[in-house]
Specification:
heterotrimer; A alpha+beta (165); B alpha/beta (667); C alpha/beta (625); B: Alpha-Beta Plaits; Rossmann fold; 22 helices; 35% helix; C: 625 residues; five-stranded mixed beta sheet; globular
Chain lengths: 165, 667, 625
């Protein structure tokens, strides 16, 4: 019967362990959210309400924290999260054309951040601290330096092949 | 102690914690949007900046006073920055002032006028967000929000709830309930304090003036108005009369001029509440059952208890609030006296309170789809109606209220301020317990303005421990202390709003809430003195009400008409985790996996249940969900099968649940 | 467990002895930059190569005893990221740049035979000169490394390597002094906060030390958010023990037994290295109870940021550790009086702390002998942009901009014309040629309207549009504004709106005045440092490049040719053959003319899509600015 039961129950189990590990105090909120974000690639609403109850915070406060920090997302993110550095050095060396090239390559339109197949999320970040390699992108924490719009095609090709596309 | 020079004047300071307070003490109205002395210092509006010699420009709200400081509040630079702030705020503000509820009481409008902001050199606000009209009490217009955070802090710090908070950041920042839900969907208790501190029209009392006029214009309806105690000492403020002066007679005149049929006093119903509540208390006190007894006349408090402290619901007085007792008495009995059906009588309450709008809509207070109270207007709305009707309120001659429910004792009147309910109950309890007449009706220990006050009343040897709380954050703390055994009380009066009903969010908007509350409270105590009777049990109209209809306090009939029940309620509508959702399954099972149930092993129970249902072949017959918290934590683990709530579920009960499923499926 | 100085020195001795046994070692930079450039593959290739040759080789890290051959080891960032992956041969100091896995055999071969692989040496991009040793390269030669001294020199994952470089001697010495003496030393050294404003660290310490409290905290601010600076990352990744040592010293000085290192979310490697380092320090008894037998206890925790620039502001950082939205709180009260959980707390930036152990170990006079009188010591800068050598540099405070840009940086790339330096990131400002001889220190920069800030130093050439740069920074601060105070939230939003208008050719002269007016108000009235400094990039460029702004708003022209909307596409009449091809591809029918006569573009209609340029076979259509 339970296609999803095992998974979901494990989530509750897992979440309770995470909360126990960080302690049920308000200061545990951000680390707990970080773990949820890491595991799910986003923060599901029902888990946020649960965390609020467990940490004795109002759901609005949890929502406020979850929407404040750039690391958190309330919408599901793609399997591959492509971050384009738009720090000063990268900007000066043309990070925005690269951002556009990636969006075009993975066919993102209308200001969406994640592709419909859930494979790619594309976002800009303020600075990855690898300015010497500008322009820089990261894909799931793998850093690519001195990227060109042409290189984007190659990188995405590899990922798509890996996904059997 | 020290002295500062502010704009050339020498100003002494003493207990002031910041320069802003000292400046205001010097009678300079330094503007602010985000400063309230009762709330934490937020420091965001930057309007209160001052120039301090040798230190440059500082925000005065969070700079402590120091001896010898030389402060200027009005310089070219400061003026320019303040004007810029106002221009920036206005640029991003919905500026349809003429149609705004708060036109005339809006701080932004007022300051823009004062500083002569005559043009806005920036683009228009780029988004138009929808209005939130989901709450019965408050309308939220995010397009008018200036993000001062006053509502956020009042809800968190005074009420201990935190329904509203900031979300997002920077230019995208907004104040919103969790997950961008609407106020009506979350754990708002409708106290309205957010609207009372809101400097603009972003949070306003939901206006029901149109319905009131419609009822008045409708000839088929007999419109009966009840006026709450705290209203009479606040209406005058809007018409230039001294703060705290009772204008009950003028209000009656105005209402009659407007076309209302009967004007009564909620204080009469308060007297009735005292009789019922005292009787209930003495019984519980003597049986040591469900003590402490909590008062139940504040609907925000009642909802708060239902949401967060369901374990204390049996301790709430089962008495309906005076508003609801009044409605019930009118619709049940008085309508009969008038020879009318309850549908033909239209009860309007005038309340200092926004939560009363919610209370009147509670289904417990409906009989045959007809509410006991049809409409609740706040003091603010009454004032608007008087103004709309063109009535020169200040020069009105007072009119006496109608009888029989226009007669009240002082005990019923002081219901409008914090401590009043306790004092009124004590005036009654004393005579019941001691069987002697109470000579001095003033209980000074009860009176005051602190958020928590407690004392022991000595009724000739019978000691009653009383606590008086206002502000739900204080109530929360008190409840925790009671829970942990740190505190013991017999009678606890809880009012959500600071100062009690006089400080209700339906009262006229003002920048200086604390002082007004004190003056209004004084006004009510003066009324108590002025009236010829001070004890509810003396009210002759009550006596005849009991004789004619209710038989005696606590009777079966009284219970039907004047008492109610409470139930725990979920705080926020959140999706439960779906475990299995077969279509058309006849049985619905929820297993609570909230923290407390989880710790008691509810997940294992859920797993076992899942397996057993599968084994017995019922997987397609059951919608199974893991719920986050069913608010029955004390009795966990909790399993809910359709409507049946099962507490303390262990493995041994699982076959029982499967059996239950089986029988339901077979049906 | 190390309990005293002898034991500490013994670890040093033993480690150095082990090192001596090696004939050569290949040091591989393993900073984020080099890793991204494929350092790992190079590392593996070198390892394979060494294994093949049957020279005694160790994997990963240095061996303690008896390895006679060549080793590869991983070091932290050298700062010369653009040239990575970097391999340095010790003890000769030969530096190979842009090494590829295929080069491994050649490198190993040459090293064994005491030779050099010429083609992998660094070649100056502007002069073409070749340098063999790292120390000879101008980029390194003119630097004075204090904070970064160990970065690239030691294995950050081995505490013994740090101890071998005199690590933890500062802590050992401090614990023999009284806390007051330690505070006094930092005070006397006049060490100023490297994270931005340059507030004296000693004064913060003294205030916190004077507070009576059952609990105090030390926080290391590693929330480096300036979009062009990465010195803190380099120190945390390359020399994590230095931070631990410094925090322990600070803890002892003010009476705190607990510290937090707040690391930016984007620095996973730094987090990992710090965790390893904390564990090692605990194992060696350098964190924990009764350190060096002094009775002093100290514990450290790591808090990972969650992505908010404003958390670099100390009160916002505290709010973040407490689990709240990272919104700055009004000051006073200052954190040194009432900080984390309302307890006295000192917050120092990574680079500031990196100076502390050496000040204690080598003394105040040594520190004051470096740098400027009012700003002693060194400062790291992240040199980027259109400069020949980019990377992390550390120079004495007061070094001139000319020295940094032309000697260390090797001048503007491709010998283009220098335009300006943007210093201090989104809080800083622009400096121009007239500032070439301005000493880079806290006070001089502030007087010039700029700021040391976090030390980003972006060189811009004639092809950089100054208005677009101002817009870029304003966009950054606007995105990162927490939204709490009106002036920063609404002010930066409106300043960005105006700058956007200007780069799109819709600006007016009045807009420039309005930018200045609002900018000044934001500076004066904002709640926190981020807001107060947010207008700097705009105000300084308005001051030094008003002409360029005016060109945008009056002539609707972008002199640098960057602003897309201000570009014009025209047909060069002399080259146009009148074939009408362009007119046919133009999507908006903006091109008109008669066949065989030069065509003309109607600028009113043109949408600057560039389709005509591509279509022209005679290169007659050009973009002009």
């Amino acid at each position: 019967m339970s296609r999803t039961a095992e998974v979901d129950l494990n989530v509750v189990d897992w979440l309770n362990n995470v909360i126990a590990e960080h302690g049920s105090t308000p200061s545990a909120l951000i680390p707990v959210l970080q773990e949820v974000q890491k595991k799910h690639n986003y923060l599901p609403e029902e888990l946020l309400t649960y965390i609020a109850t467990a940490l004795n915070l109002s759901p609005a406060t949890v929502y406020g924290v979850a929407t404040f920090y750039a690391q958190f997302s309330l919408d599901p993110k793609g399997k591959y999260i492509i971050k384009v550095c738009d720090g000063t050095a990268c900007h000066v060396r043309g990070s925005l054309p690269i951002y556009e090239a990636i969006r075009k390559r993975v066919k993102l339109v209308d200001g969406k951040a994640t592709t419909d197949d859930g494979l790619f999320s594309v976002e800009t970040v303020s600075c990855l601290g690898a300015c010497g390699l500008a322009p820089v992108i990261t894909i799931n924490d793998q850093v690519y330096g001195q990227v060109t719009p042409e290189a984007i095609d190659l990188i995405i090709d590899v990922l798509e092949k890996r996904e059997g596309m | 102690m020290g002295q500062m020079i502010i704009d050339g004047q020498k100003v002494e300071f003493d207990k002031e914690t910041n320069i802003l307070e000292v400046v205001r003490k010097a009678r300079i109205d330094l503007p602010t949007f985000c400063y309230y002395s009762e709330l934490s210092v937020y420091g965001a509006c930057r309007m209160c900046i001052v120039e301090i010699e040798g230190r440059g420009i500082q925000a005065s709200c969070h700079t402590p006073p120091e001896d010898g400081l030389v402060v200027r509040t009005n310089t070219a630079k400061l003026r320019k920055v303040r004007k810029n702030i106002l221009e920036l705020l206005l640029a991003n503000h919905d500026r349809e002032c003429t149609m705004c509820e708060r036109s005339g009481t809006c701080k932004l409008q007022d300051l823009a006028q004062r500083y002569g902001v005559r043009q806005i050199r920036f683009g228009e606000r780029d988004v138009k967000l929808p209005l939130d009209v989901s709450s019965p009490s408050i309308v939220r217009d995010p397009n008018k929000c200036i993000l001062c955070g006053d509502c956020v802090r009042v809800c968190k710090e005074i009420q201990g709830i935190g329904v509203l908070d900031f979300a997002h950041r920077g230019a995208k920042m907004m104040v919103t309930p969790a997950f961008n839900k609407q106020l009506g969907e979350v754990d708002c208790v409708n106290c309205g304090q957010c609207s009372a501190v809101c400097p603009t029209g972003a949070l306003v009392v939901k206006s029901q003036i149109d319905q009131a006029w419609d009822a008045i214009y409708d000839d088929s309806k007999t419109v009966i108005v009840q006026i709450a105690p705290a209203v009479r000492v606040a209406v005058g403020e809007a018409f230039g009369l001294p703060v705290g002066q009772s204008t009950l007679g003028q209000i009656t005149t105005a209402l009659k001029q407007m076309g209302v049929d009967k004007v009564f006093d909620t204080s009469f119903a308060a007297d009735l509440t005292v009789i019922e509540e005292t009787r209930e208390f003495i019984q519980r006190f003597s049986e040591k059952k469900n003590i402490p007894q909590f008062t139940s006349c504040c609907p925000a408090w009642v909802k708060f208890a239902e949401q967060y402290y369901p374990e204390f619901l049996d301790n709430l007085s089962s008495c309906r609030s005076p508003q609801q007792m009044f409605g019930s008495v009118v619709k049940r009995y008085y309508a009969q006296d008038l020879g009318l059906d309850r549908e033909q009588v239209y009860v309007i309450s005038i309340m200092p309170c926004t939560a009363k709008k919610f209370e009147a809509g509670r289904e417990e207070f409906f009989v045959a789809n007809n509410p006991d109270v049809d409409l609740v207007l706040t003091t603010q709305e009454l004032i608007s109606m008087i103004k709309e009707a063109g009535i020169d309120f200040a020069s009105l001659e007072p009119t006496a209220l109608d009888m029989p429910f226009g007669f009240a004792t002082g005990a019923g009147v002081i219901f409008g301020n914090s401590g009043g309910v306790s004092e009124a109950v004590l005036r009654n309890a004393y005579e019941i317990v001691t069987k002697e007449e109470l000579q001095n009706v003033v209980f000074n220990d009860v009176r005051g303005h602190e958020g928590v006050r407690d004392f022991t009343a000595d009724l000739k040897g019978t000691e009653i421990k009383v606590a008086i709380v206002n502000g739900l954050a204080n109530a929360r703390q008190l409840l925790e202390d009671i829970k942990s055994g740190k505190a013991h009380y017999d009678l606890v009066e809880v009012m959500a709003c600071p100062g009690g009903c006089v400080g209700g969010a339906g009262q006229p908007i003002s920048q200086n809430g604390t002082n007004l509350r004190k003056e209004r409270t004084k006004g009510l105590y003066r009324e108590d003195q002025r009236l010829q009777m001070h004890k509810s049990q003396q009210n002759p109209m009550l006596t005849s009400l009991y004789e004619q209809w209710l038989t005696e306090p606590g009777s079966e009939e009284a219970h039907q008409a004047l008492h109610t029940e409470y139930g725990s309620r979920r705080r926020i509508d959140t999706e439960a985790i779906k475990i299995n959702q077969p279509e058309n399954a006849p049985v619905d099972i929820q297993v609570c996996v909230g923290t407390s149930c989880y710790l008691k092993g509810s997940v294992k129970i859920l797993k076992t249940l899942t397996d057993m249902l599968q084994k017995d072949g019922y997987e397609e017959d059951v919608k199974l969900r893991a719920a986050f918290c069913c608010q029955q934590c004390a009795g966990g683990p909790v399993v809910i099968v359709d409507d049946k709530v099962m507490g303390n579920v262990g493995f041994e009960q699982i076959p029982e649940i499967v059996q239950l499923v089986k029988s339901k499926v077979e049906k | 467990m190390i309990r005293n100085l002898e034991q500490l020195l013994a670890v040093k001795e033993k480690y150095n002895k082990a090192m001596k046994k090696q004939t050569s070692s290949l040091l591989l930079c393993a900073g984020t930059g080099c890793m991204a450039n494929g350092a790992e593959q190079v590392y593996n290739a070198l390892k394979d190569e060494l294994a093949k040759r049957d020279v005694l080789v160790t994997v990963d890290y240095l061996l303690e005893d008896g390895c006679g051959g060549i080793t590869t080891t991983t070091t932290g960032c050298h700062g010369f990221c653009e040239m990575g992956p970097l391999v340095r041969v010790e003890p000769t100091g030969t530096l190979y740049v842009k090494v590829k896995p295929e080069d491994a055999a050649e490198i190993v071969e040459a090293t064994v035979n005491n030779q050099v692989v010429e083609r992998l040496l660094y070649r100056h991009p502007n002069t073409g000169e070749v340098y063999q040793r790292e120390s000879e390269i101008p980029f390194y030669k003119y630097q004075t490394r204090v904070a970064l001294a160990n970065c690239g020199e030691i294995n950050p994952e081995d505490i013994r390597n740090y101890i071998a470089h005199d690590g933890y001697q500062g802590l050992e010495k401090a614990l023999r002094l009284s806390p007051q003496e330690v505070v006094q030393m930092i005070n006397d050294s006049n060490l100023r906060g490297r994270g931005g404003g340059g507030f004296p660290a000693g004064r913060k310490w003294a205030i916190a030390a004077a507070q009576e409290s059952d609990k105090k905290y030390i926080i290391c601010n590693g929330d480096e958010g300036d979009p062009g600076a990465f010195m803190d990352r380099s120190v945390m990744e390359g020399d994590p023990h230095r931070i631990i040592e410094a925090m322990a010293i600070a803890g002892y000085a003010i009476g705190a037994d607990e510290g937090y290192i707040y690391v930016r979310a984007e620095y996973p490697l730094a987090v990992q290295r710090l965790r390893t380092a904390i564990k090692q320090a605990q194992e060696y008894g350098l964190l924990g109870k009764d350190i060096f037998g002094s009775g002093f206890n100290f514990e450290l925790k790591i808090k990972e940021g969650a992505g908010a620039f404003v958390c670099g502001e100390e009160s916002a950082l505290i709010a973040s550790i407490e689990g709240e939205r990272g919104m700055p709180r009004p000051k006073p009260p200052f954190p040194a009086v009432s900080g984390l959980w309302d307890k006295p707390t000192i917050i120092n930036n990574v680079e500031t702390l990196a100076n502390v152990p050496e000040i204690i170990r080598k003394g105040v006079d040594w520190f004051k002998s470096i740098g400027a009188v009012k700003s002693p010591g060194t400062k790291t800068f992240a040199l980027t942009g259109e400069v020949a050598n980019t990377g992390l540099i550390e120079v004495p405070m007061g070094t001139t901009m000319r020295h940094v840009v032309f000697e260390i940086g090797g001048g503007v790339r491709q010998n283009k014309k220098f335009k300006a330096v943007q210093i201090g990131g989104p809080s800083g400002g622009c400096l121009v040629e007239e500032h070439f001889d301005l000493p880079l220190d806290f006070d001089s920069l502030q007087a010039a309207g700029a700021m040391v800030g976090s030390g980003g130093l972006v060189v811009m050439d004639e092809n950089t549009c100054i208005v677009e740069i101002a817009r870029f920074f304003m966009n950054f601060t606007q995105n990162e504004s927490c939204g709490k105070c009106v002036l920063c939230r609404e002010g930066t939003r409106r300043m960005l709106e105006i700058l956007q208008k200007i780069v799109e050719g819709r600006g007016t002269e009045e807009d420039l005045d309005l930018l200045e007016e609002i900018g000044e108000s934001v500076q004066i009235g904002s709640l926190c440092g981020l807001g107060k400094t947010a207008p700097n990039p705009v105000l300084t460029t308005l001051k030094y490049f008003r002409e360029e702004y005016l060109a945008h708003v009056v002539e609707k022209r972008c002199p640098a040719g960057v602003c897309q909307a201000l570009k014009r596409i025209t047909i060069v009449a002399d080259l146009c053959k009148g074939c009408s091809r362009c007119a046919r591809v133009c999507p908006v029918g903006a091109i008109e003319g008669e066949i065989k006569n030069p065509f003309v573009i109607n600028q009113e209609k043109c949408i600057k899509c560039g389709a005509c340029i591509e279509s022209c076979k005679f290169n007659a259509i050009v973009e002009v600015s």
